[in-house]
Amino acid sequence: MTRILTYNILYGGTGRVNELTKMIGSARPDVVGLVEASDPQVVEELAQRLGMQHYMTALGKHKRDRQLAVLSRLPVIRVEVHVRPGILTKPLLEVCVEEAGGEQLTVFVTHLTAAFNQLRAGDYIRRREVQEIMNIMAPRRGTSHLLMGDFNALAPGDNLQASALLRYLLDIDCRYPHTSSMVTGLPNLESVIPWYLRVFNPLLRAIPRNKLLCALFDASVSLYAPRQSIGLLRNASYVDCFRRMNLGAKGFTCPTQSPAGRIDFIFASPHLARRLAMCCVVTEGEGVSGDQASDHFPICAEFREP
């Protein structure tokens, strides 16, 4: 069996190494994709504690350099960083490992743009990114490979509990007034609500206090939320591992303090998906609650031996 885990560790994970180690270690993964891995010391310490090798897209100069990293206890054959200025907002990390039976498995780790305050919640940017990522992965067709990370997008058919997300955003605004999300690493109303809709902010603040407004808000936002970027991967026959194994489950991954949507994914190539045995959201680990470690829950998938 080969276990894969993807985890957005929130703004580098600085000061939360113990919690992150327990969350990751509880799943016993062979390969881990880390998103927002901007602190090299955290990545190195996690690798040491977990007994794994580590590779990063780059060494960030500051916390806003939201890098990617891979930890692996399997032998690493190849590492490549794909940089596409003007197309990918963040590099794509490619790591090829050798599984126990000698099979090669290529892992791609991504972090698609958020840009929720752009037109159509920024999905036109994410579609461009997904298309380029599929172009990069094209030479791996017919082989075992997967794409995982934080996609900042919903899958077609998935639920979005928008009122829970709104309540969380308002709480962040109260806890960090007049503070940009670029400083805390956490989203707030300004980073999510487009400028042309901010005239409705007073109404938005009233919604969480009214059950009827919450229901109407959930329904309207769910219809508005674009899902085409994830649809591109599905149309290209990539398999959403969590949904394949958990047809009726919500599987919310973010935010951990008020779970509202599933935006973290592991997509398997058709060749690899035949081996899929399990996929789950990890909500706690070794006595640590997920919200103590990050604002995202990790996703873990297990694949049978070839």
Question: How would you describe the overall organization of this protein?
Answer:
This protein is of the alpha+beta class and 306 residues long. It has 2 domains: 2-158 and 226-303, 4-Layer Sandwich (Deoxyribonuclease I, Chain A); 162-219, no CATH class. The protein is 32% helix and 23% strand. The protein contains 12 helices and 14 strands. A 6-stranded mixed sheet has the order 3-4-2-1-14-11. Strand 1, helix 1 and strand 2 form a beta-alpha-beta unit. Helix 1 (17-26) packs across helix 2 (40-50) and helix 3 (123-137) packs parallel to helix 9. The longest helix is centred in the middle third of the chain and has 15 residues, at 123-137. The chain is globular and about 60 Å long. The protein starts with a strand and ends with a strand. 43% of the residues are buried. The model has no long low-confidence stretch (mean pLDDT 91).
Helix fraction by DSSP (H/I, runs of at least 4): 25-40%
**CATH fold description of the largest domain:** Deoxyribonuclease I, Chain A
Estimate the mean pLDDT confidence: 91
Radius of gyration: 19 Å
Strand order of the largest sheet: 3-4-2-1-14-11
Provide a count of the helices.
12
Percent of sequence in beta strands? 15-25%
Shape: globular
Q: What are the secondary-structure elements, in order, as H or E? A: EHEHEEEEEHEHHHHHHEHEHEEEHE
Structural class of the secondary structure composition?
alpha+beta
Kindly provide the name of the CATH class of the largest domain. Answer: Alpha Beta
Low-confidence stretches: none
CATH architecture of the largest domain: 4-Layer Sandwich
In angstroms, what separates the terminal alpha carbons?
A: 9 Å
Q: CATH H level of the largest domain: which superfamily? A: Endonuclease/exonuclease/phosphatase
* Quaternary structure annotation: single chain
